[in-house]
């Protein structure tokens, strides 16, 4: 049962009705020993709920999300045994249980998660053990969106929802050097592969949306975005912007990218190069004369290049390496660092692919690229460690965080020592 800790919390306003509904549904399920059968029975009951019953659960989850926005949280975690019946929020990088949002049993959380999904999505969740989707709500006349992932945790359902910014982060605040901005713009370069990389939660989507918006405001064209799920919805300005969500509008990133070639695009945004087929498709699309943006979960420019090649079969790696050298234009690898003001600060590494970088990729000398980045300041390049030193000199981050978040600890230590 739920423990009401703070009555003022909007998410608890509908708790009594929701708890009664949970008890009613659970009484119909019985002690099923088979986990999958129990989940399917829950799903059947949820899908057959009356409209008013569904409204109780929707108000409860919406209350959670409203409270999340009030606290400026980036993520919410619900359900599964690991949450220990609490709702957790990530606020300015710190994830913690929030007692004012109540305590919910695993069975109650299972029902709450299932209530967010359609019959088709539930089938996909049961089959693949995970379901990524988007959730949208109108608040104060404005559409607000979340990226969500439902998955299993010790036979129960767990849910992560990440807030999607209601507005695009201004491009001029990203601190992208002018030579790099020219390459990112369709007005100056019509083709090439541009990669944004970083761990989950490093702000890749925010940066990508800023770049898309900058092109949308300045260049006539057609942009096709393939996402899993679609996060920010761009309004067409100078560009037509199509949004195609994997699972709803298209079957896979690869299919979406191939189909986009027949849709007269200028820019194709592939949400993630997560498998060899998608990687090879993106390289082939650039060869046809298009500009392609995508992301990877890598921490540096050199790691990104090595990862792309390593993802492919050994017998294909030389061909992939040569093709990558031909089409790759820019890699921006980024991290969000705790700032001295308590907020998160963007730190980035930027590689512009010059003739020397191309040669290093082809000749399997990617270990030489870090030095090329460190010496390429006039071309807009910067290593992560150089950018951390810049933030440290501006007293935006602490020396300890600069060292902790550096990829090259030895080089970071040298840069810190040079400041003394």
Strand content: 15-25%
Q: Whole-number average pLDDT?
A: 91
Largest sheet: 7 strands, mixed
Series of secondary-structure elements, N-terminal to C-terminal? HHHEEEHHEEEHEHEEHEHEHHEEHHHHH
What ranges have pLDDT less than 50 throughout 5 or more consecutive residues? 1-10
Approximate helicity band: 40-55%
Question: Would you summarize the structure shown here?
Answer:
With 420 residues, the protein is an alpha/beta fold. Helices cover 41% and strands 23% of the residues.
Q: What report would you give on this structure?
A:
The protein has helices spanning 15-29, 35-47, 51-70, 106-114, 119-128, 178-184, 204-218, 253-260, 276-287, 301-310, 317-327, 355-362, 369-374, 384-393, 399-405, 409-419, and strands at 73-79, 88-91, 94-97, 130-139, 142-153, 156-164, 192-197, 221-227, 239-245, 267-270, 291-296, 328-338, 344-352. It is of the alpha/beta class.
């Amino acid at each position: 049962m739920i423990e009401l800790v703070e009555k003022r919390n909007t998410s608890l306003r509908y708790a009594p009705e929701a708890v009664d509904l949970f008890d009613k549904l659970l009484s119909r399920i019985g002690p099923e020993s088979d986990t999958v059968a129990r989940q399917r029975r829950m799903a059947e009951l949820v899908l057959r709920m009356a409209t008013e019953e569904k409204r109780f659960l929707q108000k409860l989850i919406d209350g959670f999300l409203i409270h999340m926005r009030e606290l400026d949280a980036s993520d919410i975690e619900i359900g599964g045994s690991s949450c220990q019946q609490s709702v957790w929020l990530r606020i300015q990088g710190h994830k913690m249980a929030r007692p004012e949002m109540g305590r919910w049993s695993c069975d109650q959380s299972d029902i709450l998660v299932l209530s967010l999904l359609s019959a088709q999505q539930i089938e996909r969740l049961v089959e693949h053990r995970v379901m990524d989707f988007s959730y949208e709500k109108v608040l104060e006349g404005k559409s607000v969106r979340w990226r969500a992932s439902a998955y299993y945790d010790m036979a129960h359902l767990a849910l992560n929802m990440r807030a999607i910014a209601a507005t695009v982060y201004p491009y001029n605040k990203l601190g992208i050097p002018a030579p790099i901005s020219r390459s990112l713009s369709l007005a100056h370069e019509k083709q090439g592969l541009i990669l944004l990389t970083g761990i989950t939660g490093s702000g890749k989507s925010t940066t990508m949306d800023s770049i898309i918006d900058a092109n949308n405001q300045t260049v006539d064209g057609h942009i096709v975005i393939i996402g899993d799920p679609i996060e920010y919805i761009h309004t067409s300005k100078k560009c037509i912007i199509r949004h195609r969500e994997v699972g709803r509008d298209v079957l896979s990133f690869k299919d979406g990218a191939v189909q986009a070639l027949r849709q007269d695009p200028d820019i194709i945004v592939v949400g993630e190069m997560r498998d060899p087929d998608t990687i090879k498709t993106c390289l082939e699309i650039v060869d046809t004369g298009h500009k392609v943006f995508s992301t990877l979960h890598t921490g540096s420019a050199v790691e990104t290049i090595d990862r792309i090649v390593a993802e492919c079969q050994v017998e294909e790696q030389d061909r992939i390496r040569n093709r990558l050298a031909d089409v790759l234009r820019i890699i921006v690898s980024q991290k969000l660092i705790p700032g001295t003001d308590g907020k998160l600060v963007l730190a980035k590494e930027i590689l512009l692919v010059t003739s020397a970088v191309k040669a290093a990729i082809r000749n399997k000398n990617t270990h030489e690229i870090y030095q090329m980045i460190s010496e390429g300041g006039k071309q807009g390049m910067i290593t992560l460690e150089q950018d951390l030193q810049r933030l440290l000199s501006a007293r935006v981050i602490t020396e300890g965080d600069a060292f902790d978040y550096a990829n090259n600890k030895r080089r970071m230590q040298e840069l810190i020592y040079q400041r003394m």
